[in-house]
Amino acid sequence: MVIIMIKDVSELYGRQVNATMVDDSLLNNSIVHKYVPIKVNSNNIYCKRCGQKTPVNRCNLPNNNYYCPVCINLDRVTKSIPLVYADEPNDFEIKQPVLTWQGQLTNEQKKCSRDIIEVFENNKTHLLWAVTGAGKTEMLFPGIEKVLTEGKRVGIASPRVDVCVELYPRIKEAFANTSMILLHGRNPQPYHYAQLTICTTHQLLRFYRAFDVLIIDEVDSFPFVNNDGLHFAVENATKQISAKLFLTATPTNEMTKKIRSNKLSASYLPIRFHRHLLPEIKLKYTKKWRDNLKKQKLPRLLLHKIDEKIKENQRFLLFVPRIADLKLISDILAKHFDGSKWETVFSSDDKRMEKVSDMREQRKLFLITTTILERGVTFPGIDVIVFGAEDEVFSTSSLVQIAGRVGRKLDRPTGEVLFLAEENTLAIKSAINQIKYMNKKAKKLNG
Amino acid sequence: MDSCLLCNKSMVYDMSLAFLLSFKRLPKRYVCAECMNQFARIDETRICTSCGRQMDESGICIDCQKWHQLGNHFVNESIFQYNDAMKDFMHRYKFVGDYQLRMIFQKEIRKKIRKDLLIVPIPVSIETKMNRGFNQVIGLLGDIEYVDALMVKEKRKVRQSELNRQQRIHNKQVFTINPKHVSEIIDQKILLVDDIYTTGTTIRHAANVLRENGAKQVLGLTLCR
User: Fold this and answer.
1) Is residue B42 within 8 Å of B15, Cβ to Cβ?
2) Lower Cβ count inside 10 Å, N or C end of chain A?
3) CATH assignment of A282-446, among 3.40.50.300, 3.40.50.1000, 3.30.1380.10, 1.10.1270.20
């Protein structure tokens, strides 16, 4: 393991790292600030990097030292080693043209885009609720262009690595003259100071009062949702006066409550860029499917559907609740159909990226997957089936996202969204209602 | 509700009526069943009787035959195989430095401790101790009593894990006796404890130092092989 010592002060602008990673010449520089990241209370410790408390017996080291186990994935912070950072100076060179994107926004997108500019200019916190396939990324461009031109530092973060990886080339193309970096746990590329940062929400823990504008995509998704440490990181990574924009296609109940009580301002975009409505969910019941699965049996309804899609050469995703279900289901399908037509995919699958590109390049007709492919990925012209939709892993936002994989392109703006479930759950009901609600709003826009 | 130290998911306990009526205390667990199943326990009926590695049938493995030719007869016992799950555990425990993970295997180590043996942990260098903040072997021992009889002799230029097998076998003695505890090992039967047995060089070097300083017998115990 080779540790590269930080020698260039720009790498500390708005960024906090362990003092052991920083060259001595920098540590003695007066613009470099130091602080002890762990505060020891009587029976717990408080980590100033992630804002979380841990009981003493979970975090003690020998010799009266302590570390934070909560944010340990981004290098361990301990009481004995200070964190160091330098104030963000916004030392950027602005090259014209800032925006190198040539596309056009629809009228609805333009309206949201004006809201976004207003949020950035007035350092507000705002939620943009736009349906899946609304063209959220493009709507950001005018706002980002404006703040980059003013020399502001911008961060775009998502809880999902896949989303960051997909986003980076699109942003890179749209702002070709801006210095940019992509940061996530699997990226070996070394850090450098850049005006635009695209990163996972975890990486925000490494920043300290860096961003003038921070955009968080997919705020409703794991691991950001319900993670206090990551919410703390958002506050810590942004300047005291800064704009924060949250993006979602499926707000959580907590967010909708805040909107209703005027604690959070919001804009809505209920219509897709191609002006077609969201495909609505069809729900069918499959009783005792789990018992039958143990007996190596799949519901006739599912087999029939898959047979139909194979015959029509219709590409699709089959979502299942658990990693353990993947092989079971795949093995049973192999008895009925040509096994070369599909692959199974899950989060820690070593071959995940390859399998996804097999699907994208049409070498496979379908993927059997866990919720890992629920968002951030676009396969043109697909249908989706959710088998076991009643399982608790499928939250409302998961289900709406999954349905949102369908009909994203203008050449096939419709498609089938089929849920097979043991019973109708609250999550299924609210997913169906959310989509109907947005479609009702969209119909009004279409007149 | 406790959550698994490895995957962070909350753990479900056996709350069957039979269990409740047994009035047994709820066993303290640190890792969920799913994560625990990823570790491969060594089947003691099929091992190398010298280094303790898993074999198809019991005997002496090729590596140990080589050691025997060099006149080095050492007996080691290991609890788990060094598979992907164990590799990941070691990475998080030692190199990332998540010290609380020490608790996961303390019970396993405790079961292997014999009262008639003096426990000596393999030491880490002062530099490692500084960076890591702990000795991973002492962490695994929990509250088991031990004697810090060994010290790392010199500042190693490279970590042992960065050397290949040949380099490691021919690596010269890295340990020395701790003068504070030298008297405690004389004529004693000793159990040397380490986290991992890879080529066997480390633990054999340590055993030699103890024997040279008067230990009667030295056996080895490592968490994994």
Assistant:
1) no
2) C
3) 3.40.50.300
Nearest residue of B to residue A77, measured between CA atoms: B97
Closest alpha carbon to A216 in A228, A190, A229, A234: A234
User: What's the average model confidence in pLDDT over A183-194?
Assistant: 90
Cβ distance A213 to A245 under 8 Å?
Answer: yes
Domain A107-269 has CATH 3.40.50.300: yes
Structural domains of chain B, with CATH: 1-37 (no CATH), 41-224 (3.40.50)
Whether B18 has a pLDDT exceeding 90, the answer reads: no
The pLDDT confidence band at residue A189, using thresholds 50, 70 and 90, is confident
Judging contacts by C-beta atoms under 8 Å, the chain B residues touching residue A80 are: 133
Strand-pair partners of B54: B47
Interface predicted TM-score (ipTM):
0.85
Q: How far, in Å, are A200, A291, A299, A320, A388 from residue A285 at the CA level?
A: 38, 14, 10, 15, 9
- Tell me the mean pLDDT in the region B50-59: 94
Which positions in chain A have a beta carbon within 8 angstroms of at least one beta carbon in chain B?
1, 20, 58-63, 65, 67, 69, 72-73, 76, 78, 80
**Partner-chain residue, chosen from B95, B99, B159, that has the shortest CB–CB distance to A61:** B99
Give the span between the Cα atoms of A165 and A182, in whole angstroms: 8
